[in-house]
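Following up on my earlier message about (Z)-L-Arabinonhydroximo-1,4-lactone. Here are the inputs again, as you asked, copied directly from the submission form:
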Amino acid sequence: MIYQNPIIRGYYPDPSVCKANGKYYLVTSSSHYFPGVPLFQSEDLINWEQIGYCLTKKSQLPLNNADSSGGIFAPTIRFNNGRFYMVTTNTTIGKNFYVYTDDIYSEWSDPIIVNQGGIDPSLYFENSKTYFMSNGEDNHGKSAILQCEIDINTGEILTDAKAIWGGTGGRYLESPHLYKINDYYYLTAAEGGTEYGHMVTYARGKNIYGPFTPYDNNPVLTNRNLGGYIVQGVGHAELIEDYNGNWWLFHLGFRQIGRWLTYHHLGREVFLMPVTFDDNGWFSVGENGTTTQIVETDLISKDITQNLKKIYSFENTDWKKDWQFIREFNDNNYEFGNNSIKIKSNSYTLDDNKTIPSFIGIRQKEFDFDLSVNIKVYNGEAGVTLYMDEDHHYDLIIEKLNNSYNVALILNIGDIKHTVKQMYVGKSDVILRIKANALNYEFYCDNIFMGKAQTRYLSKEVAGGFTGVLIGLFAQRGEQFSEFTDFLLNYDIKQIGGDGYYDV
Ligand code: 6LW
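Thanks, got it. Here's what our run produced:
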């Protein structure tokens, strides 16, 4: 069968996967968005359905004053003795913690703190012992993966942390995971940083605390040498054996906006490549240690087809799964309908950092889309935004000013706030529309062209951080509800050439 990477599209970084109950479960990081840690399930590794979030209560996910791209970093999900565990870092409180559940379709526990530092924590279970690892430094201040034993019932650290591997010398050694395969312990990691130099490395050893011998051909996966290729930044991987005994590597990557345009605004997404073990027990990835957008494999039945969802509406999305809030969900500010939502403005605006604007967003999953939404404003302003962070967002708004109504396109790029066009409309409700491709967004009000803006100025390369663009609905100023109806988002999923290059 043939599938197209990424297999989970849009800002879903740092994937971790486990298998249980005949299914596969996957989690990703979620930064300062609420709820936290999106949770997916699949039966075929290719098609994934979001079943909720791991962190759905403020007691699990305090994001007060979290910076954009702060909050929740990389998670790990594991299944042991009938219980699911998800361990991660809340960088806003500077703590590693885990939650657990015995029913993955219901709520997870309150957080259990593990007082070991670093980020990208992972868990490994063996012989009724639990091992906790994260990135850090050895006794000489050199980057290393640190591992200790913990009491999984309390999070108490039972042994001193030991530096078990220092990687292969790449910067930013992170994302450790440990696996026991036949007679060896395999330790995977990310190096190079989560940008264009990203890579996956690994080593193996006979003892759980090492020594670990690095794979001769590290990095086992990287696209850093593929100039001009759409898929870049691959790294932060999770190795898994499927129910048919085949091995796979889930990992993050991103799609740059053009062959020679090294910008990405959709965020880091979930990619999948097949893994092969040689006769000596060393594994390699794909054809040549790179991630391709098109993957042809006989390891998955040709009866399975990849179903990439193209149309999103209020009616075919789930408020509790597909949509997220900035830092917190204040239920006084939202009224949900089947084909509508009312959003009440508060004193915060999209330009504020560390606050809780009245905003609900869904990830932009493809370069090319056509969006329309009907907005009725009663006071203040409301609109649709392409939101990267408080300093990088494009807003198409309708505002009530002195009993008249205007529509405006406002671009926020770093220190620049620019009104491209402001138009008197003389009514309180309009149909706002955005058309997008890899390079540009075009904005319309009732089919009147309001202007365009380049995607690159919402990219991670310009804005920094760890997120991706969310298509957001918001209300601000005015302290009153605005009404959004008939949200219709149509994606055009480009079929790229066999060489995987992407011409806009
Ligand atoms: C994640 C870490 C990383 O925890 O980014 O740059 C962090 N590398 O692996 C947030 O996604």
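One observation from looking it over: The pocket of (Z)-L-Arabinonhydroximo-1,4-lactone is lined by residues 13-14, 29, 73-74, 119-120, 174-175, 190, 193-194, 236, 466 (CB under 6 Å). Hope that helps, and feel free to reply on this thread.
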